[in-house]
Design a protein that fits this description.
heterodimer; A: 315 residues; alpha+beta; Alpha-Beta Plaits; 2 domains; four-stranded mixed sheet; two-stranded antiparallel ribbon; 10 helices; B: 314 residues; mainly alpha; Formate dehydrogenase/DMSO reductase fold; 73% helix; 0% strand; binds iron/sulfur cluster
Chain lengths: 315, 314
């Protein structure tokens, strides 16, 4: 059981009871180089033997996967937004379309100043669409609500600092599902138990790279020691800012945030909610003290009502 | 009863309008019923203990039956809701204070055992000493059984539940008291049901006050309690609870009135649980309840930081 419930926590494995342990491992997903190939989704399904979870056309750009879930542990989001060019662009071949103006000071206005290779947004400039791709995954939170609320101990913290479900213990109570502030974990209907990304726990144990990171052709998904990934991400975001891409920001990088920082964090090119991510997630157990205090006070109030009901008249 | 938006809709962005957090997979009616019977049983155990002490055997029998019956039905509902019911005992594998469901299992299990034992002893007249002790134990576990279910809902990322964590325990305590009191008003002879009436009236007051505070404190996050189906359920339950309280206050000693008011109390408590449960589902399904409050929180923090920075260094 975790000792601290929120705030900064530098050694999450020790907090979970590991005295000797390997460094904390994680993902840094740099969405600025994601090309939306979905190799990560496929590799994850293949390696982890995750069942098919329905095939339908969603109408959401190229995203027919739609969301993370019990049988989707990597999900590539495709954001298409019209740019409202002020002058009609005739769609002449060429990159970067420097002539058009994105509306107001929207994030993509910076994107057009970049060579196409630096930002996905510029690629489809001639169609007046800003296009963002991002491969989402379980965040392996420092303070993981799913793990906190799991009544059976099925969800546990590994020696790598990741969060994993043990399917042989899970009884399908479903408490982790509404507890996760990111909407990651879910119950598989046909099976009854909860499933999510394990950060390829089995591969980590043999020193391998998780399947998605291994398959990613652009190194958008980077796997490694969390400290190292954070340093690398800081450098990358500085680099992009220098090039004028002010909209680049890290998401889940800050160890002081509402979940104590994510083990899997991201470089985004727009607000988190544009990608379907919560802008300021907080682990529910941060308020656990207050919750139990109010539950206790209310139980006391009920006891008082019970006692008072018998005071006074004899009928 | 017309639906209305309580606040002007602020602008917010989303990913194709999709929800951010997952909708709870807890089943309807299993979980609302569990919330209801748990509350009713917990408060009934208190009523039973008071009746035993004050020499009201009729009330004691009814309340012991309600406590035991509620515990059994609740346990069945809880197990039925599991994805793997056969693994129910895994609930008792560890005790985790961070998991209200774990803590609750360790409240429900002894409560069920004790309340069933107390009821069996009361009915059969056997081992009366042990029966009384069991009843006392059930009364001790009763109030936490009634209010922990609020922690169960509130300790999630579901906005309408989580943000209401200061009021929900009191709302559930009040709702449990009206259900227990109401049921005893229906089934107990008028000569003995004074305490049941008083418990129900006090419970109604607590519940209505908690609901009112929740609505005002939460702002737009309380909207799901006011609009749509959950809004209708909540309004109906509130009206029934208030009406029952007034009627039982004025004419509760009349047997017929007592039966009608008691039935209405019980029904209102049940409807309240469905309303609260469904309001949570509504707030999970719409990304605005996740995004807007979080955005506001970020803006507030940013403004505070700027304020700090702007202050001259002495
Ligand atoms: S993102 Fe959700 S499922 Fe993943 S560790 Fe955090 S709380 Fe658990």
């Amino acid at each position: 059981m975790s000792n601290s419930l929120h705030g900064r926590l530098d050694d999450v494995q020790q907090d979970a009871g590991y005295d000797q342990h390997p460094p904390r491992m994680g993902f840094f997903t740099d969405t600025s180089v994601c090309i939306g190939c979905k190799a990560c989704e496929v590799a994850c399904k293949e390696w982890n033997d995750v069942p098919e979870d329905g095939m339908s056309l969603s109408g959401m750009s190229y995203d027919n996967t739609q969301a993370l879930g019990a049988s989707t542990w990597r999900h590539v989001a495709f954001v298409e937004k019209p740019l409202h060019p002020t002058t009609t662009d005739l769609g002449l071949p060429g990159m970067g379309a420097p002539g058009w103006d994105s509306h107001e000071n929207g994030p993509a206005s910076a994107a057009v100043t970049l060579p196409a290779s630096e930002d996905q947004g510029a690629e489809s400039g001639d169609s007046g669409v800003r296009w963002l791709m991002s491969s989402d995954v379980c965040k392996h939170c420092t303070h993981a609500a799913c793990l906190d609320v799991c009544p059976t101990g099925s969800l546990f913290r590994t020696e790598y600092g990741t969060v994993v479900v043990q399917p042989d213990i899970c009884n399908g109570c479903g408490y982790c599902v509404p507890a996760c502030p990111y909407g990651v974990i879910d119950v598989r209907k046909e099976d009854g138990r909860a499933f999510k990304c394990t950060l390829c726990y089995d591969r980590l144990k043999t020193g391998d790279t998780p399947a998605c990171a291994k398959a990613c052709p652009t190194e958008s998904i980077q796997y490694g020691e969390l400290d190292e990934l954070r340093a690398r991400a800081d450098k990358r975001v500085d680099e992009l800012h220098e090039k004028g891409l002010d909209v680049a920001r890290l998401y889940g990088r800050d160890p002081e945030d509402g979940v104590g920082g994510d083990g899997a964090f991201f470089l985004l090119l727009d607000e988190p909610e544009v990608y379907g991510l919560p802008p300021d997630p907080v682990v529910t157990t941060r308020d656990l003290g207050s919750i139990w205090a109010h539950v206790g006070a209310a139980a006391g109030a009920l006891l008082a009502i019970g006692a008072a009901s018998f005071v006074g008249r004899r009928r | 009863m017309r639906e209305r938006a309580m606040v002007p809709e602020p602008e917010f962005e989303s990913y194709y309008g999709k929800q951010i957090i997952k909708t709870p997979t807890w089943k309807t009616p299993d979980v609302p019923i569990y919330l209801f019977v748990g509350g009713m049983a917990g408060a009934s155990a208190l009523l039973a203990e008071g009746a035993a002490r004050s020499g009201r055997p009729g009330l004691e029998g009814v309340a012991r039956g309600a406590a035991a019956g509620g515990a059994v039905v609740g346990t069945v509902a809880l197990i039925h809701d599991l994805g793997r019911p056969e693994r129910f005992l895994n609930m008792l594998r560890v005790l985790k204070v961070t998991s209200p469901l774990s803590v609750g299992s360790f409240i429900l299990a002894p409560f069920a055992g004790l309340s069933v034992a107390a009821f069996a002893s009361h009915v059969s007249g056997r081992v009366p000493r042990i029966g009384r002790l069991a009843g006392l134990g059930a009364a001790a576990f009763g109030p936490p059984l009634t209010t922990y279910t609020a922690a169960l809902l509130c300790n999630t990322a579901v906005p309408a539940w989580h943000e209401g964590h200061q009021e929900m325990p009191f709302l559930f305590a009040g709702s449990g008291a009206t259900a227990a009191g109401g049921l005893a008003m229906v089934l107990t002879p008028a000569a003995e049901n004074g305490p049941a009436r008083r418990m129900a009236i006090a419970g109604a007051g607590l519940e209505l006050a908690a609901a009112q505070r929740l609505k005002h404190r939460l702002g737009m996050v309380a909207e799901p309690y006011e609009i749509g189906r959950p809004g209708l359920l909540m309004r109906t339950a509130r009206a029934m609870t208030a009406a029952s309280a007034v009627v039982s206050l004025v004419a509760g000693r009349n047997r017929a009135v007592s039966v009608v008011a008691g039935t209405s109390y019980v029904a209102a408590s049940l409807i309240t649980r469905f309303g609260v449960f469904e309001a949570g589902l509504t707030s999970a399904r719409d990304p605005k309840y996740t995004v807007i409050p979080q955005r506001e929180r970020l803006e507030r923090r940013r403004a505070e930081r700027e304020h700090e920075d702007a202050r001259p260094a002495r």
